[in-house]
Amino acid sequence: QVQLVESGGGLVQPGGSLRLSCAASASGSIFELNSMAWYRQAPGKQRELVAHITDTGTTQYADFVKGRFTISRDNAKSTVSLQMNSLKPEDTAVYYCVGLGRWGQGTQVTVSS
Fold first, then answer.
1. Residue 93 bridge partners (DSSP)
2. Residue 28: is its pLDDT beyond 80?
């Protein structure tokens, strides 16, 4: 059964950066055929799409992260990453990796001074 394991969350000051990574327990030949995405859920709010990347590498971003976040994938390693720059307190949330019919367990990102 495929598993998605996120890493890279933590506490960062406003304006700082973090890089989230998600490792899929799937072979590269299967991983590369699937779109992947990052969602987030802030306390008291619904989960929302942050960024999406297709199997061919086409990316899509929520308006609230455009120009600040970058999603990328490494099919050889079956990983997808989210580079987050210029972080704001409102980016505080649990971030989830989604794909291959699975959700990861989530990683906490806290932006606070």
1. 109
2. no
Give the number of residues written for the chain: 113
In which element (H, E) is residue 31 found? Answer: helix 28-31
Are 36 and 22 in contact, with CB atoms under 8 Å apart? yes
The structure tokens listed for 61 are 């971003």
Name the residue with tokens 């932006």: 111
71 near 61, Cβ under 8 Å? yes
DSSP of 61-80, one letter per residue?
E-GGGTTTEEEEEETTTTEE
pLDDT digits (tens, 9 = 90+) for 37-67: 999 999 999 999 999 999 999 999 999 999 9
Say if CB 65 and CB 88 are below 8 A apart.
no
